[in-house]
Design a protein that fits this description.
The complex is a heterodimer of chains A (214) and B (268).
Chain A (H helix, E strand, L loop, with lengths): L5 E12 L2 E12 L3 E6 L5 H9 L6 E8 L2 E3 L1 H4 L3 E4 L11 H12 L5 H10 L15 H12 L6 E5 L7 H15 L6 E5 L3 H4 L4 E5 L4
Parallel strand pairs in A: 3-8, 3-9, 6-7, 7-8
Antiparallel strand pairs in A: 1-2, 1-4, 4-5
Chain B lengths: L4 H5 L6 H4 L13 H19 L1 H21 L6 E3 L6 E3 L3 H19 L2 H9 L2 H7 L2 H31 L6 H28 L4 H26 L6 H30 L2
Antiparallel strand pairs in B: 1-2
Helix pairs in contact in B: 3-8, 4-5, 4-8, 5-8, 5-9, 5-10, 6-9, 8-9, 8-11, 9-10, 9-11, 10-11
């Protein structure tokens, strides 16, 4: 039995852009070993909710508490334990895939050897393409590289916004495996997905359905 | 809603090592602002060497401006002007005016190129990854260092050509280099924080100028004071310290305030 070591708790989270309310009073709790799926119509705030959880955006009211090994993490602290992937997030097109990973590893204080790099790229199906500039990648390859980036440093929490966007069938299976393996890790991890894809919704233990505010 | 097959078939707990993709070797924050800033600087330099966006923007502006200044002022070199008030004759284009024009050139060159550092991050969508991985202070220092290197490079290339073209005196070489260094420091610091604000507000070039004006007016006034001191024969040392030190202090002040406030600009 996996002990609950990580938790993400949404406490009456509300957000608005200008005068338009996106969602109000979102309450949910995601624990270690769980995969939560955030769904809802376009504009209902799925991506916004994940950004708030990642500490990239402040909620207008309410908050998202992240506890790691019993400790409540502030907005900056939580980022070291979060792997975040989103269509809004891009990697550097003017750098190669290997240089991108090396750069973000350096920023996180991770020592990434050539073997680590090869292993990382192989894991996401980009073996032999590490020296290519990212701007020469297809959209599917960029999405795979984002997974390599998001998994750097073994984050305890994975926040995946549209996790299989641009991916082929093999890519979707790869993501399914990553999510399954991550959620069942012995050190207590959890995954939150934002999606409306029926297949991805089946990966979740619990569902947070957002309704577009009127 | 059915549960996925992989959950039904296998309940085994996967060891962390099985998934391991390069474990962190030390704490994110103890890793240090300096190391993060250096990593960012290296990345920006590598990207700039490949794309040459900022180098071209700054370089093309600086050298076309140089050419125009050279052509336009060729006839002024030996011209004298007589003040209507005092009746004193003096060179139409004195050393302080030449220095002012050099800094106008460097200011516009800086604003043409240095804003790109943040605007490019916003436009390319890399800003989210950067925010997830570095403290705001590291970002400021990294970008500031990049701007400082770029601006210093431009100043090193442009100034000798400008001095030759306009026959501008340099006064004491040591003080001249100190003034140029202090000026570049202040200008890079100002351009960095204004670039960040403008990028956050949508990357408008007009906005860059509007926000930058109040900061630049003070900076240019200090710069002109310092230039005037530089070209004053037998200027008292205390005046040199006051004027050139004042310019350097302004640069340090801008950088210090920028570091303290950058978090509020950088974070949503």
């Amino acid at each position: 039995m996996i002990q609950s070591q990580v938790s993400v708790i949404f406490n009456a989270v509300s957000h608005r852009y200008g005068g338009r309310e996106v969602f109000t009073g979102v309450n949910a709790s995601v624990q270690s070993g769980q995969t939560a799926v955030v769904s809802g119509s376009n504009g209902s705030g799925k991506s916004t909710l994940l950004k708030i959880a990642a500490g990239l955006l402040s909620a207008k009211s309410g908050d998202v508490d992240i506890h790691i090994d019993g400790r409540l993490c502030n907005q900056m602290e939580r980022r070291r334990d979060i792997g975040y992937l989103s269509p809004d997030l891009s990697l550097y097109g003017e750098l190669t895939a290997a240089e991108n990973l090396q750069f973000f590893a350096n920023m996180q204080g991770i020592h990434l050897t050539k073997i680590d790099l090869t292993h990382t790229l192989t894991k996401v199906g980009l073996q032999g393409r590490g020296r290519d500039l990212v701007r020469a990648y297809s959209s599917g390859m960029r999405q795979r590289l984002k997974y390599a980036y998001a998994l750097l440093g073994n984050p305890r929490i994975l926040l995946l916004d549209e996790p299989t966007a641009n991916l082929d069938t093999a890519g979707v299976e790869l993501v399914e495996n990553i999510v399954a393996e991550h959620t069942r890790r012995a050190d207590g991890c959890l995954t939150i997905l934002a999606t409306n894809e029926p297949r991805e919704m089946n990966w979740g233990d619990q569902h947070i359905v957002l309704k577009a505010a009127e | 809603m059915g549960r996925p097959a992989h959950r039904i078939e296998s309940r085994r707990v996967i060891e962390a090592k099985e998934l391991e993709i390069a474990p962190k070797t030390h704490n994110f924050f103890s890793h240090g602002i300096l190391a993060e800033a250096v990593s960012l600087l290296k990345k920006d330099l590598l990207a700039e060497i490949r794309t040459r966006v900022a180098i071209c923007a700054v370089g093309v502006f600086a050298f076309s401006a140089l050419l125009l200044i050279g052509l336009a002022t060729a006839s002024l070199k030996d011209t004298q002007t007589i003040s209507t008030l005092s009746g004193i004759s003096r060179p139409a284009w004195d050393a302080t005016s030449k220095m002012s024009l050099l800094w106008v050139l460097l200011c516009f060159a800086a604003f043409a190129g240095l804003a790109h550092t943040f605007v490019h991050e916003e436009e390319a969508g890399t800003v989210l990854a950067l925010r997830m991985n570095a403290a705001p202070e590291s970002i400021y220092f990294g970008k500031f260092a990049f701007n400082m290197i770029l601006l210093s490079g431009v100043a090193v290339c442009v100034t000798p050509v400008y001095v030759l073209l306009t026959q501008m005196p340099t006064g004491s070489i040591g003080l001249f280099v100190l003034l140029m260094g202090s000026g570049c420091f202040g200008l890079a610091g100002t351009a960095t924080i204004i670039g960040a604000i403008a990028a956050k507000a949508g990357g408008s070039g007009a906005l860059f100028g509007a926000i930058g004006l109040p900061l630049l007016v003070v900076f240019l006034m200090l710069l002109m004071n310092a230039s005037s001191t530089l070209f004053t024969v037998d200027a008292a040392p205390v005046r040199c310290v006051r004027d050139i030190g004042g310019l350097l202090s302004y640069g340090i002040l801008i950088a210090a305030v920028s570091v303290l406030t950058f978090k509020f600009v950088w974070e949503d």
